[in-house]
Structures are given as structure tokens and as C-alpha cells.
Amino acid sequence: xxxxxxxxxxxxxxxxxxxxxxxxxxxxxxxxxxxxxxxxxxxxxxxxxxxxxxxxxxxxxxxxxxxxxxxxxxxxxxxxxxxxxxxxxxxxxxxxxxxxxxxxxxxxxxxxxxxxxxxxxxxxxxxxxxxxxxxxxxxxxxxxxxxxxxxxxxxxxxxxxxxxxxxxxxxxxxxxxxxxxxxxxxxxxxxxxxxxxxxxxxxxxxxxxxxxxxxxxxxxxxxxxxxxxxxxxxxxxxxxxxxxxxxxxxxxxxxxxxxxxxxxxxxxxxxxxxxxxxxxxxxxxxxxxxxxxxxxxxxxxxxxxxxxxxxxxxxxxxxxxxxxxxxxxxxxxxxxxxxxxxxxxxxxxxxxxxxxxxxxxxxxxxxxxxxxxxxxxxxxxxxxxxxxxxxxxxxxxxxxxxxxxxxxxxxxxxxxxxxxxxxxxxxxxxxxxxxxxxxxxxxxxxxxxxxxxxxxxxxxxxxxxxxxxxxxxxxxxxxxxxxxxxxxxxxxxxxxxxxxxxxxxxxxxxxxxxxxxxxxxxxxxxxxxxxxxxxxxxxxxxxxxxxxxxxxxxxxxxxxxxxxxxxxxxxxxxxxxxxxxxxxxxxxxxxxxxxxxxxxxxxxxxxxxxxxxxxxxxxxxxxxxxxxxxxxxxxxxxxxxxxxxxxxxxxxxxxxxxxxxxxxxxxxxxxxxxxxxxxxxxxxxxxxxxxxxxxxxxxxxxxxxxxxxxxxxxxxxxxxxxxxxxxxxxxxxxxxxxxxxxxxxxxxxxxxxxxxxxxxxxxxxxxxxxxxxxxxxxxxxxxxxxxxxxxxxxxxxxxxxxxxxxxxxxxxxxxxxx
Amino acid sequence: xxxxxxxxxxxxxxxxxxxxxxxxxxxxxxxxxxxxxxxxxxxxxxxxxxxxxxxxxxxxxxxxxxxxxxxxxxxxxxxxxxxxxxxxxxxxxxxxxxxxxxxxxxxxxxxxxxxxxxxxxxxxxxxxxxxxxxxxxxxxxxxxxxxxxxxxxxxxxxxxxxxxxxxxxxxxxxxxxxxxxxxxxxxxxxxxxxxxx
Lengths: 818, 197
Description:
The complex is a heterodimer.
Chain A: H1 13-17, E1 33-39, E2 45-51, H2 53-57, E3 61-66, E4 90-91, E5 97-103, H3 106-115, E6 117-122, H4 129-133, E7 154-162, H5 165-171, E8 174-182, E9 194-200, E10 232-237, H6 242-252, E11 260-263, H7 279-291, E12 295-298, H8 301-307, E13 314-322, E14 328-340, H9 346-355, E15 366-374, H10 389-406, H11 410-416, E16 423-424, E17 430-431, H12 436-447, H13 449-452, E18 460-470, E19 485-491, E20 497-501, H14 510-522, E21 529-533, H15 550-577, E22 584-587, E23 590-593, E24 600-602, H16 603-614, E25 617-623, E26 644-655, E27 662-672, H17 679-698, E28 733-739, H18 761-773, H19 784-796, H20 809-814
Parallel strand pairs in A: 1-12, 10-11, 14-15, 20-21, 27-28
Antiparallel strand pairs in A: 1-5, 2-4, 2-6, 3-5, 7-15, 8-13, 9-10, 9-12, 13-14, 16-17, 18-26, 19-20, 19-25, 22-23, 23-24, 26-27
Helix pairs in contact in A: 10-18, 14-15, 15-16, 17-18
Chain B: H1 13-17, E1 48-50, E2 53-55, H2 65-72, E3 91-94, E4 97-100, E5 113-115, H3 128-135, H4 145-158, H5 164-170, H6 182-196
């Protein structure tokens, strides 16, 4: 291997550091208008009327739209389409879009919004998930119940049981019960959402249906009576999911998908926050169709906070039983998810809240009962470590409590329960490679955790946690049998390789990964690979940058395409040299004869020989997931992945016992990514993940004003000053250790690295705080007020003190419910 | 044969007859310069000096420096992440001092030397910081990178061998959501070492 496994530049690296890189808001188009969206000031209300007359009459305004212009529901999950691009007759959170305008500039658009008159009838609002769950229909539900007599405030309820949970719990030597609350957090990519829409009413050029469009009849698949039987829509979007956006735009706007093009410029961070369609994507399209001019909408930072789709607040109860040797026997979980106003990915989140807990530890019995509830707040969705970061926090603290009660070192307890490799979890998910033990070894050694545990002075402590995560999902968001990822690759007479890739570059490096693979397999220098990307008009479908799927799936697709081409080049060169094909190597810009490498030619000449022999050289490559590696029960496909990553963290903290201020001094992160295709990028994902988990542990709270504080439903802190994400001065020292377990099905053995390494951050810090001051923090975040309250409770009981001394604090701290 | 041999529209016909067709002079690129051959420079009234170029620019009076750079001068390297001085993505150098261009009225920058990320390097090559950011994977999504580079460049112009704490302090006004900052520190240290030799 010449490139794979070594640190490399990213192909767009210098573009980014020189300021040349183009993001969506950098696009300017002739005649472009600016759009703005009018948003609801009420958390729950009926829309009685919308009067746009005065706005439409304002000079400089070119189009105004309301919910009636797009009366079709959408949703990323095909079974739960429950939102309109603009609210039709009901608003469900402060910030719900009601109308939109396009004008010559932003100032005029904002003035036009002021002229729109909306008449509302306010409705009682639900902010507390337990109140929403207890609703009896006397006040209107947030959504219509799907069946008569059901609670319309419930998105999804899942209860799954594996093994004899109650019997094994009764027989366990030690049982720990705990109640945990995970406060919601949000993604805050530094780039706000932005879209540009362009409508070409006669747009047939470069259109898939253009040849047939000369006929009087509509093209294949055209919606009869659809708005755009002749037109062509292009949307440039800061999205993580151009393919799903493409589908939803076509469906909601009633356009033939062949007449819709989604272009994805570089994306300035996403983290799950751009992984479904948002109101602005439909609005730029519709406003462009109405005005006939390109329209841009750039969210304000405040709008980014209200659009949200971030981590759900989770209320969790766990009972965990083990033997006196620390061997897990039974796990029983009860979770309420506070979903906000719409379903988003919530159906999946509800399953993930339970399904992804079953490794890296073997558990003979497991039950989870999870309910996702609507509330009148911005919708929650997937954030880095979708649905599994919250239960992982609770469970890894449970393990810490169990270790203490059986008198075991917490790392040792985790080792004893290791599930192993090439096995199945209790919920029947297939696990292949598994380097979790090496991860534990690495962080234990580097942190000297064994020497420090329970031995540092009062106020200082260490904590450990482990986790697993998926490398993509075996089943796509909408059911189909087609490949999940694909590339087209061509080689030309100049010795260059062009790769057409529809994968979503959001900073993680997927464009570079296909380039490394093409260069490795075809023997060309990296700078001879061009990646042509992110455009549904010419790149094959990749499902998007979510669920940590891209390296695994796109990587395999790229290898598939490159090897088809390599095969032809080798065959042509072998014929030319009259040697065996298997003896022809492509490396370092040359074709070489293996037995005597002095016999060689520039790879360009080899490509020319192949083109002369086989014709113009291009190949498609694709990857589809195995479909027989999931549970045989209803819901058993959710959580199934072709491979799982594993992570261990040790965190070291200093707690100021007077103020409750927690200083995380260092986090050691070890991650089994299968194989690091570029270790620099893998470390970047590990450090970025640990940083993000650290922020959630100590600082971040995505919370809303409640009825007691006036203006209920308003975001408490919709700015980057008040919603505190860690600065360089807040962030602890981070040290990464890559563990390579060489997955049998991953590209060169690779698995995911983008989300798994976040999971242990929070419980490792919680466990370290306990080691430091003997206080259990079962409620996030570990901000000075929360820590101070727990310390104060400890003081009432004569503490705080290092664990080992009798402590009543744990029970006091875990008795709260959020 | 259904199409071959029959009169058909040209695929770009309506594009041409509607004025949408793009010829070379219709192309605009971010940060694009305009070249002239064998002509002496026209005298322009000086309003801004950006990356060593004197630029005359007409914008609404309330425009910020960031809006002027991005939307009037086509220098889109500087980014808008929050529009209220919280994130630092818009950081540029004004007379060498890191400045939040989203909070700076354009008239405040008149007659002062403005340097954006596009002006850190030279035509011959990138600033060592830009190259080291690439080598160290210090730019993931890259959106905070232009602002961070400007803050780091100001640091390195006054401190030749900064400690890690000095780097952390210099970058405390620039939020990065991808990297956890570690690779950024590595890159700044490597650039400092390169500038010292």
C-alpha cells in the first residue's frame, strides 16, 4: 500500500485554507433574489388567516408564498411525513414557518415579512413530555392520532425483550437502579443552513427528459397537471442528504424527479443537523418557480437553533444486574424521548435508544421500553451518535456503579463482559471485527488509569467508559434493493482518473477517501485524481452522510470501480509484454512487471494501451449491504450494520468542591476504526468527537423558556454566545489511539470513525467526577450549578469525600427527574 | 429512427434565445481578478485597501466590512457564521489586528489595510499556516478556517515561538465545531517552526 494507511493531504485542503472553497452562501447568480421566512411567535396555534396583500404590493418583492402553495406533507422517514414546508393550518412550535417572501435584497424581504398579517387562535401547548404523554384529548393533541382513541402526542412506542429479563434480574447478586436525564443539545455547525433555488421554466438543456420533451406529451413520470411539466429546478443546498432532498423536492413540488437537480457545494459542518429537508429548501424552490428568478435563503444563527433536529432530551431509568464476579446478567431500560414538534428521524431514534446498547458487552437478557413524545418545541432528530449517546451515558454510569458494588476495577469489569468478535448480540445483530479490548488497554496504559483510580487526592479523579457504533445501516431510509453507494470512474489518455461521486463531503473527508482509493488501485499520483462530486445530474446515488456509513460503503464502491479498470489495464499491459496479467503492477505512476521491476512504463502509456485494446475506459462500482445479518423480529433490521466500531475513553477531571466547576484536564480516546485509511483524518474525527461529547457533558443545554418565565417555548439561548460550545480555552487536552481490527468486509478493513468516538465522553467524565468527589451526576450537563447542588447535598451528609468512604450522595443525586 | 433524421430543437437553443447561455465573459468567480494588458492603471478614488489592492466600492451605508468583502468585492473566503460577533468565522486583519468584520461598519475600514484569508499567501505559494493546516488536517469542514488563519497569522507576526497556551488564547475568539482544536494547534506550531527557519 502506497497511500492507504498513511497521512495524506485532503484533496480540497488548500482550497479550504486559501479561502477559495465555495460554500452555498458564496454563490451569487445574476438577478438573484433573497428570501426570508415568517415564523410563528406561538408554540401551538391554529392559523385562521394569512394576509399577504401588503407584502406582495411592496416594491422590490417578487414572490410571496404560504402553506397553501405547498400543501403536501414531507418527512425524512416515509412512514411519518408530518410537516408542511410552511404551516398549513397549525403551528406547533415558536419558529414554525408560516410564509416566505423573495425580494431584491434582505432588507426588503424583512420589511415585507412585517407586512404579512397572520391571525392565530392560540392553543394549549405541551412542553413537558410526561404531560404530553398523559394527555387525554381534552386539549388538542399536537398531531392527529393515527387511530381513534390513541394519544396524538406519541410519535412511537417500542418495547423489545430478549432473554429472561425478570428471572435473571431476580437471580442477580447485585442490582443497581438509576434514573438519568440527558438534556437536549444541538449541532451548531459554524455554517448556517443555506440554499439557492433556480427555476428554468423552459429548462430542458442537460435535462434527462429533453429528447422526449419535443413531443407534445409529458415526459416519462411527469405528474399530470404538475406545476412544472416543462421546467427544471436546481437547488444548491448545504445538505448532508442530497438524494433524499431530491426525492422530497420532487414529491412536494409535484415535479418529475428527472426535472430536479440538487447540487451540494462544500458543507461547513453538519453533524446530523442537515440530514433531512428543511423549510428553506422548499421555499427557495417555490419562490424561484413563482418569481422566475434565482432565490437564496440563508438562515440566521437564531433560525439554525430553532430548526434544531438535535439530540433528544432523554428521561431514562435503568436496572442492571450482575453476578458477584461482575458478569452482566440482565438489563432493563425505560426511556421517554422528548421529541419536539415533528417526527423527523424519531421513529429510528426510538429504536436506536435501545437497539444500539447490546455491545461491546454480552448481556444474557435485555429489555427496553422507549416512547417518543411530541412537545411544542423545535423538533429533535439525529445528532452525531444518533439515539445512542444518551443511553450510553446512563448505562456506562450503571456499569461504574456495579463495579463499585462488586468491588471491581471498572476497566476490569468491562473486560470481563466483552462480547467478543464474530458473534451476535442478544438482539441478534451480527458483530464482525471487534478491537474493544485493545481500546481499553490503550487508554488504561496511556492514562495510567489503574494507578490513579481512587488514589488521586480529593477533587481529582479518573473515569472510564466504552461504546460501540454502527458503520452505516443495512437498510436505507426508504425501502429499496438498489446499491447504497456508487461511483463512476474513468481514466483518460493523460493518465488522469476522474471519479464521479455523489457522497456528501461535510468535512469528514469522503472526497479524499475516494481519491486515495483510486490512486492506490490505479497507481497514479494523488494529484492525478479528480473527484467530481455532489450533483444529482451527473453523480450516481449515495444515500448521504449519516449513520457513519460513508467510508465503509463509498470505499467499497470505489474499490469495486477501480479494480474493474485496473483489471483491463493489467490485461492490456500483460498482452503487450507477453507476460501473465497477475504479474503486472500499477504503482507510483508506473506499470511494472513484478518479477523484474526494471521492466516498466509510465502508467499513462498503460492506460493508452488499455484504451486501444478495450475502447474508452470507464467503470461503475457500487456497494450494497448484507441483508441477512439482523434480528428476525419486528424492528430487528433497525440497528443492523455491516460492521461496528468500538471506543474506550479515560477522562481525568479536577472538581472545585466549593464552586462545582469541573475542569476536564485530559481525555484519552482509543477507537477501533477497523483500519485507518488516513490516520490524520481518523484522529481528527476522534478528537472532534471527544470535544463534542465534552461540550455536551459540561456546557451545552438546548432549553426553552417555560410557562413560569413568560413567552413559553422561546429558546433560552439562540446564539453562539449564550448556547455555550467549547472554545479553545475550554477544550481539554485530547490524545488519540487508533486500534485497527481489520474488518473482513470494510474497504481495506476500515470501519467508521466519525460518531463512535463521541459516545464514551460523557459517562467517562461522569465517572471521573465520582472518583474525584464521590458524587454521582446522573443529570446533564455537569455545569457548576448542577455540580454545586450535588456537592451541597453531599455536604449535608458530611462529604464530599473520595469514594470508598460511605456515601449517601448517589441515592440523593439520582432521585431527580428532569 | 425516432429522432435521427428529423428536425429537432438544439439542446441549448432556448438557453441561447432566452439570454441564459453562458459565454466566457459571463463567468464570475469568487475573488476573481481582472487582467488588463499594456494599459496604465486608471486613477480610482481609494476607499478600501484589501490584500494590497486599492478598491473602490459602492455599497449601502449600513453594510458591514464582511458584507462588503463577500457580496460587493467577491472575496467570499471570510465567512458568516453568526452575524453578531460570537463565532469568529468572519475574522480579518485590519492594520494587522484580528477584527470581526461582521461587527465592523465598512467605513471604519477605510484608509486602513485589510487582509483577508485570500491575502495571507502570495501568488507564489500559500502562507506556511495555510500549508500546515492542510498537512495536519486542521481544516475539516473548513468554514471556521479563514478566520482562524487570520487570528493565527496575527499571533505569528508578533510571537515567533508561541506556547500552546498562547495559541489557545489567540484562537479563543474563533469557534471550531469539527476538530477539537488539537490539529489546529499542531498546524500553528509547525508553521511557527517553518517561519523561524
